[in-house]
C-alpha cells in the first residue's frame, strides 16, 4: 500500500477546492396571468333547517323530527332527489337562564335538524323555499349558485390565464429587446370564491321568495417561467 505525503495531499485538496467553475446563467422571465370566465349557474345549494323548543328534550326532538320529515317529504314531492339531500347538522341544546343570585335554571330544550339541499331547477328555488316554510322549516343559510359541471368553464379560465401570461411576457421581452424562448415551468394558483354571507330568515308565511341567480365567475391564475433569448 502506498501513502501520499501529507503536504502533497493538502496541496491537492486545496487545488480541487479552488478550481473555478464557470456556469452559464440562463436569462428568464417570470410572469403571472389571470383568466376569468363568467357562466350562467345551473345549480343552487342551500341549508334548510328546523328548530323547535320544548320543556323536555324528548318533546323538542320529537317536534323537530316531525317537522323535518314533512320538509323532506315536500322536497321530494317537488322533484328533488334523495341524492341531493343530506343532513348536515343534528343538535340538542339546553336553554338556561340565571337568576339574581346567579342560580342556574333550565328553561327548556332546543333541537335542530339542518339539511343541505341541491336544487337543479333554478326556476324552482323561490317556490321550494316558500313551500318548506309551510311544513316547519324556520331558518335558511348560505344560498349559493354554482355550476353542476364546472370543468369546461375551469378549462376555459385556465386557457385564458395562460394567454394573458404569454401576452404580458411578450410585451416585457419586446420592451427589453429580447425574445421569448421555451416555457420552462407552469404553476397554478387555486383561488377560492369569496365567502357568501350567511343568510338567516325567520318566517311564518310569505309568497314565493324572489331569487335571482345572476352569473358565477371562475378565476384561474397561472405563473409562467419563460426563457429569454
UniProtKB/TrEMBL annotation:
Signal peptide: 1-23
Keywords annotated in UniProt: Signal
Transmembrane parts of this sequence: none
Origin: domain of life: Bacteria
Database matches in Pfam families: SIMPL
GO biological processes: DNA damage response
Signal as UniProt keyword: yes
InterPro entries given in the database record: 26kDa_periplasmic_antigen (IPR052022), SIMPL/DUF541 (IPR007497)
Protein name: 26 kDa periplasmic immunogenic protein
Organism: Thalassovita mediterranea
Amino acid at each position: 500500500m502506498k501513502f501520499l505525503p501529507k503536504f502533497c495531499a493538502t496541496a491537492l485538496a486545496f487545488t480541487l477546492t479552488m478550481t473555478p467553475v464557470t456556469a452559464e446563467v440562463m436569462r428568464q422571465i417570470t410572469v403571472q396571468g389571470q383568466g376569468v370566465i363568467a357562466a350562467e349557474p345551473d345549480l343552487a345549494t342551500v341549508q334548510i333547517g328546523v328548530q323547535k323548543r320544548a320543556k323536555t328534550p324528548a318533546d323538542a326532538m320529537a317536534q323537530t323530527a316531525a317537522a323535518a320529515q314533512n320538509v323532506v317529504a315536500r322536497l321530494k314531492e317537488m322533484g328533488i332527489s334523495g341524492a341531493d339531500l343530506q343532513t348536515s347538522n343534528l343538535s340538542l341544546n339546553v336553554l338556561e337562564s340565571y337568576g339574581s343570585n346567579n342560580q342556574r335554571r333550565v328553561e327548556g330544550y332546543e333541537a335542530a335538524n339542518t339539511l343541505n339541499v341541491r336544487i337543479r331547477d333554478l326556476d324552482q328555488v323561490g317556490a321550494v323555499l316558500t313551500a318548506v316554510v309551510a311544513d316547519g322549516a324556520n331558518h335558511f343559510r348560505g344560498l349559493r349558485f354554482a355550476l353542476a359541471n364546472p370543468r369546461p368553464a375551469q378549462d376555459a379560465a385556465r386557457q385564458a390565464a395562460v394567454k394573458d401570461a404569454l401576452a404580458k411576457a411578450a410585451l416585457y421581452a419586446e420592451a427589453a429587446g429580447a425574445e421569448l424562448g421555451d416555457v420552462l415551468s407552469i404553476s397554478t394558483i387555486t383561488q377560492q370564491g369569496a365567502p357568501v354571507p350567511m343568510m338567516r330568515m325567520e318566517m311564518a308565511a310569505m309568497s314565493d321568495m324572489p331569487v335571482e341567480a345572476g352569473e358565477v365567475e371562475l378565476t384561474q391564475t397561472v405563473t409562467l417561467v419563460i426563457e429569454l433569448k
